[in-house]
Design brief:
The protein has helices at 35-39, 54-60, 76-90, 107-112, 139-155, 185-195, 199-212, 217-232, 237-246, 251-263, 267-277, 283-300, 305-318, and strands spanning 46-49, 66-71, 97-102, 120-125, 128-134. It has 319 residues and is of the alpha/beta class. A five-stranded mixed β-sheet has the order 1-3-2-4-5, sandwiched between helices. The longest helix has 18 residues, at 283-300. It is globular.
Length: 319
């Protein structure tokens, strides 16, 4: 059993840019097959989502926290957990909703949430990911995680509740298509590249946007996120942590673990790892760590108080 990760504010801005998953021509959520063969009929509290339908799910998370369950038909534990989650979510009287995503039909969601196991449970609050846990958990543990999630959501103004038919559904019961402002062309190019897993192309598009407008703060943050996703792409959690444990003085291995920590919402751990390592490095190593920290500051958000603390510590080490 994997221990649950308590929801934290760190996860509300991190390496995962879920808006990149929203497809302009997304259809409504798929229905009738898969998840609810195990968990009952789909409605507005418990429903299915996938790569194409995730735009509606993302929009709903601005009203009420969404529990996203990555499951699979071949995984008996994931079917059992899905039934448990449905029961516990319904007990919250619309303060939470459950979106079941079949991992085999949702490869982009699996990649975006960096799922290392099935089932994996995450939440989305105000459009931002919140890692929860992987594997089966006792009811009391899940209830505790849900309590913490609701507290976190309240801190970010997501305090709505949902009754059947109240999540923007149209008259036939399908979730309404979210209305979105068109993105600037280079931002759209970068988002499209992220959707297909081409993080180098995404970074290139963001760099071009910054060259055209150095004040484009969204492009600067997007570049940092795309670079981070690119560095983690194709690597596994175990491989990264094992490499760092085997070579504690290897700068590349420690940089990888910092990326992994930050992508999972462990912001302070990521910063502390690099800042603690910093004094032992030569000039080239210090330059690399300083540049990486500046990039990670953009991923987290430069107005985040944890960034301010880490920045002051870095300045002290530099001077």
């Amino acid at each position: 059993m994997t221990n649950p990760i308590p929801p934290s504010g760190a996860a509300l801005r991190g390496a995962v840019d879920l808006s990149a998953l929203v497809q302009r021509q997304a259809q409504g959520a798929t229905g009738g097959q898969g998840a609810h063969a195990a968990s009952g009929p789909s409605d507005q509290i418990v429903f299915e989502t996938d790569d194409a339908a995730f735009g509606s799910t993302l929009e709903l998370s601005r009203t009420v926290p969404v529990i996203v369950a990555l499951w699979a038909t071949w995984s008996e534990p994931s079917k059992a957990l899905l039934a448990t989650l449905e029961r516990l979510v319904r007990a919250r009287a619309g303060r939470l909703v459950l979106a079941a995503a079949d991992a085999d039909r949702s490869p982009q969601l699996v990649q975006a949430f960096q799922a290392q196991a099935i089932p994996t449970i995450v939440a989305v609050v105000a459009g931002q990911p919140v890692p929860l846990f992987a594997g089966e958990q006792p009811d009391e543990v899940i209830d505790q995680v849900f309590d913490q999630l609701l507290e976190l959501a309240g801190q970010h103004g997501v305090t709505g509740s949902i009754e059947p038919g109240e999540n923007g559904a149209d008259t036939d019961g399908a979730p309404a298509e979210p209305v979105e402002e068109p993105l600037p062309p280079l931002h759209q190019e970068a988002y499209d590249a992220i959707e297909r897993g081409d993080f180098a192309a995404a970074s290139s598009a963001y760099r071009t946007a910054i060259a055209q407008d150095p004040r484009d703060a969204l492009a600067v943050a997007g570049l940092a996120q795309a670079n981070l996703l690119g560095r983690l792409h194709g690597k596994t959690l175990d491989a990264i942590r094992n490499a760092a444990a085997a070579a504690p003085q290897d700068l590349g291995a420690q940089l990888d673990v910092a990326d992994l920590d930050l992508s999972g919402g462990h912001v302070e751990d990521a910063f502390d790892r690099l800042l603690t390592f910093f004094p032992s490095l030569d000039a080239d190593g210090k330059k690399l760590v300083r540049e990486r920290l500046v990039e990670l500051f953009e991923v987290v958000g430069t107005d985040d108080p944890r960034v301010a603390v880490a920045r002051r510590r870095l300045t002290t080490l530099l001077y």
